[in-house]
Amino acid sequence: MKKIQVITLFPEMFDGVLNSSMMWKAQDCKAVEFRMVNLRDFGLGQRKRVDDTPYGGGDGMLLMPEPLFAAINDAKQYDPDAKVVLMTPRGARWKQATAQTWADGDNGYIFVCGRYEGYDERILTLVDEQVSVGDYILTGGELPAMTVIDSIVRLIPGVLGGEMSTAIESFSDGETLEFPQYTRPEVFNGLEVPKVLLSGNHAEIAKWRKNNSFKAEK
Question: What's the pTM?
Answer without folding.
Answer: 0.89
